Amino acid sequence: FPLFLQVTCNCFTISNGEMQDVGVGLYPSMSLLNHSCDPNCVIVFEGYQLLLRSIREIQIGEELTISYIESLMPTTERQKHLMRQYCFVCDCLLCQNEDKDAEKLAGEEHVWKKVKDAVNGVKYPKSEGEWEQVLAKCQNLLGSSESCLPDTNIYQLKMLDCAMDACINLGSWEDALNYGIRTLGPYRLYYPGFHPLRAVQLMRVGKLQYSQDMFPQALETLKQAYTIMKVTHGADHSLMQALMELKEQCEAAMRMQ
């Protein structure tokens, strides 16, 4: 039991290139890093290799911090999660000020609670039929909540992400792009500065724009992704290489027009 608790408190969630969870791993030296809801470093993976990247200027003697949890959660949820898994209360400025909580839970409460339950109930589909069921559920909820919830509501945002994923897996590129475009404003609000999740989302939307022959728009989106990703991932990361290749293809397509 003590070993289980040590693993639970010290393991890192391993993610793939699109920041989707694929496993967990133990990295003893990185376990020494403390938490902040507004950290000065982020962790990204290259396969099973863990990379610690600074996302802003760090002063001599300043502590390096990372976020142990998904920062999109409102303050009370972050605090519950941290206490349950790591047994401490975070007193960072974001928690003290309950920063952006009003935007995260904007809209009619009974509606976003319904959307929250639906999002939490989605299991990762394994077949085209299951993806179709997920998409139908997303479209139904998004249609009924559109006048009640802004896209900045975090559960509405997660539903948009889910619908985008479903459309991509079903090859519905135009619909995927429409959902993806709606996420960019909220992502900019909740992941300001340099954040790998925003970089990946911009890259996904840029790829969809490229697939629709929207080359000028795609290039602008990919440039935004590049600006962030060169900080969060570094020039040698495989995802950065893929982004640069896509950006070059987009530039070539524009020259041929």
From TrEMBL:
<keyword id="KW-0808">Transferase</keyword>
<protein>
    <recommendedName>
        <fullName>[histone H3]-lysine(4) N-trimethyltransferase</fullName>
        <ecNumber>2.1.1.354</ecNumber>
    </recommendedName>
</protein>
<dbReference type="Pfam" id="PF00856">
    <property type="entry name" value="SET"/>
</dbReference>
<dbReference type="InterPro" id="IPR001214">
    <property type="entry name" value="SET_dom"/>
</dbReference>
<dbReference type="GO" id="GO:0140999">
    <property type="term" value="F:histone H3K4 trimethyltransferase activity"/>
</dbReference>
<dbReference type="GO" id="GO:0032259">
    <property type="term" value="P:methylation"/>
</dbReference>
<dbReference type="InterPro" id="IPR011990">
    <property type="entry name" value="TPR-like_helical_dom_sf"/>
</dbReference>
<dbReference type="GO" id="GO:0005634">
    <property type="term" value="C:nucleus"/>
</dbReference>
<keyword id="KW-0489">Methyltransferase</keyword>
<keyword id="KW-0949">S-adenosyl-L-methionine</keyword>
<feature type="domain" description="SET">
    <location>
        <begin position="1"/>
        <end position="69"/>
    </location>
</feature>
<dbReference type="InterPro" id="IPR046341">
    <property type="entry name" value="SET_dom_sf"/>
</dbReference>
<dbReference type="InterPro" id="IPR050869">
    <property type="entry name" value="H3K4_H4K5_MeTrfase"/>
</dbReference>
